[in-house]
Amino acid sequence: MKIATLSNAAVGHTQRWVAHFRARGHTVRVWSLEDGPAELGADRLPRLPLPGALRYPLAVPALRSALARFAPDVVDAHFVPNYGLMGALCGRRPLVVTPWGSDLLLTGVANAPQKARAEFVLSRADAVICDGENLAVAARRLGGGERVHLVPWGVDLTRFKPAGRRETGLLFSARMHEPVYDMPTLLRGVADELAADPAARLVIAGDGRLTGELQRLAAGCLPAGRYEFVGRLSLDAMVEWLGRAEVCVSASVSDSTSQSLIEAMACGAIPVVSDIEGNRPWVRDGEGARTFAPGDAAGLGRALRAARADAAWGESARRLNRARVERDADAAANMGRVERLFETLAARSPRRHA
């Protein structure tokens, strides 16, 4: 198949998705307004210095011309408000739209214009792929109907696995520095644990609009020399950190299926995560994880202490989580379902039979 992927080239989700289809022998070209790694080979679309509500639609003429030359069998658009909208405006079929979570759970219902935009995009999609049940419910409600497919992306189980050595006291955060992930609650919640245990340290991956603010907050509430911002990580580096970490912490206020949660479960880092709808199908408090109420820094601290206090429980949680991921989040199996969906849509396309 020839697949045209419309997505943020700088994001690891895009890179892993494209790598799967290329490894399967498909021809995949990526169009993005954001720069990505050289090996992705994304085609850069014009990025005007305007708000996103204008910047992405104004790139549609250039994208439409590029797609006409490429003649894809499937247009594969990720994140509803920007690349999903661009895919819908281009008018090429079949169109598959993949929400990532906040685009429907938060942005898609924030106000009437944004809800209308989400409904416009989903109504024009031939298929909508959602990685969590709560996201699928939102997509159906916003116009996706029976065209919504629930498929967790999953992880590469041959890569995401425990390392040979677990580092006691290594607390790890893999979330981006954006408001939905509530990193201030994470930093405040970890502070008491670092103060109480001289062997504990916090490693903060990712970046985003709030990085500078978070660095200042960390300097004010965490012990000097006991935390580190390591920036956006390569896939290999992420696997290495998760394979060594004792605990992986997330204070997100909203998620569908959190890829970072699944990766932590696969690698044996015990999740200490907010008790939100997207996490509950995978872990519960005392069942593979310790949880806390969203926004509750003190609760995060208590959950963190509980996760680290019982070594026998921790080993049981690691075994439980790995088995769950192997059963329900094997990327080879789950992305195979996506691939078959693409092939079915391509085979039904009138253009294919013209």
Describe this structure in words.
The chain is 47% helix and 18% strand. The chain has 354 residues and is an alpha/beta fold. The chain folds into two domains: 176 residues, 3-Layer(aba) Sandwich (Rossmann fold), CATH 3.40.50.2000; 162 residues, Glycogen Phosphorylase B (Rossmann fold, 3-Layer(aba) Sandwich), CATH 3.40.50. The strands form two sheets. It has a seven-stranded parallel beta sheet with strand order 3-2-1-4-5-6-7, with helices on both faces. Strands 10-9-8-11-12-14-13 form a seven-stranded parallel beta sheet, sandwiched between helices. Helix 9 links the parallel strand 9 and strand 10. Helix 4 crosses helix 6. The model has no long low-confidence stretch (mean pLDDT 94).
Write the layout of secondary structure elements.
Layout: E1 2-6, H1 12-23, E2 27-32, E3 43-44, H2 52-58, H3 60-70, E4 74-78, H4 79-90, E5 95-98, H5 102-105, H6 112-123, E6 127-130, H7 133-144, E7 148-150, E8 167-173, H8 183-196, E9 201-205, H9 211-221, E10 227-231, H10 235-244, E11 245-250, H11 259-267, E12 270-274, E13 284-285, E14 288-292, H12 297-309, H13 311-328, H14 331-348, H15 350-353
Parallel strand pairs: 1-2, 1-4, 2-3, 4-5, 5-6, 6-7, 8-9, 8-11, 9-10, 11-12, 12-14, 13-14
Helix pairs in contact: 2-4, 3-4, 4-6, 6-7, 8-9, 8-12, 11-13
